[in-house]
Amino acid sequence: MTFDVVQSLDNSHNVSIEGAQACCWIKAKDQESAFIKAKFLVECDEWVITHFNMEIVEVNRSMFTGRHTGLKQYDLAELNGTSVYYVAWSESIEEESEFELKIKKKSNLGLYYKERKNILKKGKCLHFDSGEACDQIINAHSIQRNQSLNQIARNGHVYQISKKFHGPDLSIKYELEGINKASTFLGFCKKHDNEIFEPIDNRPLTPTNEEVFLYAYRSICREILVKSNALDLSISKACSFSQDCAEKKLIENIIEGTSVGLANLLEIKGQYDNSIKLGNFTDVKYVIFHCKEKPNLAFSGLFYPDYDFYGGHLQNLADLNEKLSLLTFCSAPMLNGWGFVIAWYQENSGICDVFINSLGQIINDQHSVEDALFRLVISCCENHAFSPLWWEQLDISSKELIFNRITEVIDPLTPIDPKYLTKGLESIIDWSFENVFTNIH
Ligand SMILES: [Zn+2]
């Protein structure tokens, strides 16, 4: 797509020009997300858009045969996801020439990466009774380790989404990680971790109310730690900008969203804490799908259901005043095989009830509930691990579909597709659920 642009007032461009056109090559699955990304990139390059050429053209590589620049930009976009090329004009320039547009760095990344290291090392005990006695913060496992991770591991290793920084290449990668490190979080001291999670760490899921409650509670605690670290990171990133710009604005929006999400989570954790103090574990509703086969995936996560399995709208996550309903899900070892555990708190549970009903409808309509739940894990839970045996035998096109889905859902510039839980990632997973355990009618 192309935009007409002029230089922004306080631009740091290395040349002064009269007018320009921005030509953007964007790898996206729909026009809206392509447009949002292109606009963002052009604004980051210190241009003001004066005219949107709304005609977004879908292109393929052969359309640029024999066109040197077009082909080069197309290949760049294929590699990096986006590429932008500006054609500018000025009376003072006599000869056509090509050069790299240089923008003054607005953020001090050195400072940010130093800060980042400290933030990621930060831990605290999330136990409601935490205090001075919590002197030994441990790497607590968010996915049950003894059986869950061990069962899918090969020589003590599983595949996880890589958390390493890969430079400008933003694509998702999986890499082998030792299960001592996989899915851990610095969210409890040794004493409290043992005390609280003992009933689920050393035994398979029965299931009892208490066990399911604890699995859900652990997912929430991990997310609180992840979210508060992410918030600190975003704040430190925003602070590293010396002036306002499109990038800073995006980060400020992310900060606002993360703060609200975190505040909501802390409130929900408060409800769970109260139940633990009272020893009352019946406040959690659950549905467990039981699979007799050996697991090939382990996961633990949560999400605020925004759309159900048919694309029906449930709650508006952008409404910062709404109290959001939360659903947790994880894999858990069971005596024969393993369970896909979905749990949610009794109070304020209307949205989750509707969400689960739509899952029931999937079964009634004889769609694959296995595909639907696999889609849920890949779309809503970055905290998952694959068995190396399973992942390595998977064909390239299935891996590609998984990469694409994760990239779509984590990219803050890609709008949410209401039907993201309705379709996609079919026939990749070979689960077969035989029983359902639940404490709801
Ligand atoms: Zn503690």
Helical percentage: 25-40%
Number of strands: 14
Give the radius of gyration.
24 Å
Number of helices: 11
Sketch the major β-sheet.
Answer: 8 strands, antiparallel
Characterization of the model:
The structure is a single chain. By secondary structure, this protein is of the alpha+beta class. The protein has two domains: 2-89, no CATH class; 114-438, no CATH class. The chain has helices at 31-44, 68-80, 109-120, 145-152, 190-201, 209-239, 246-278, 350-364, 369-380, 388-393, 396-410, and strands spanning 2-7, 19-26, 47-52, 82-89, 137-141, 157-161, 174-178, 184-189, 284-291, 297-303, 327-333, 338-345, 384-386, 433-438. Strand 11 and strand 12 (338-345) form a beta hairpin. Helix 3 (109-120) runs antiparallel to helix 6 (209-239). The model has no long low-confidence stretch (mean pLDDT 89). Bound molecules: zinc ion.
Question: How is this fold's topology laid out?
Answer:
Blueprint: E1 2-7, E2 19-26, H1 31-44, E3 47-52, H2 68-80, E4 82-89, H3 109-120, E5 137-141, H4 145-152, E6 157-161, E7 174-178, E8 184-189, H5 190-201, H6 209-239, H7 246-278, E9 284-291, E10 297-303, E11 327-333, E12 338-345, H8 350-364, H9 369-380, E13 384-386, H10 388-393, H11 396-410, E14 433-438
Antiparallel strand pairs: 1-2, 1-3, 2-4, 5-8, 6-7, 6-13, 9-12, 9-14, 10-11, 10-13, 11-12
Helix pairs in contact: 3-6, 5-6, 6-7
Bound molecules: zinc ion (ZN).
Zinc ion (ZN) binds at residues 125, 127, 130, 134, 188-189, 191-192.
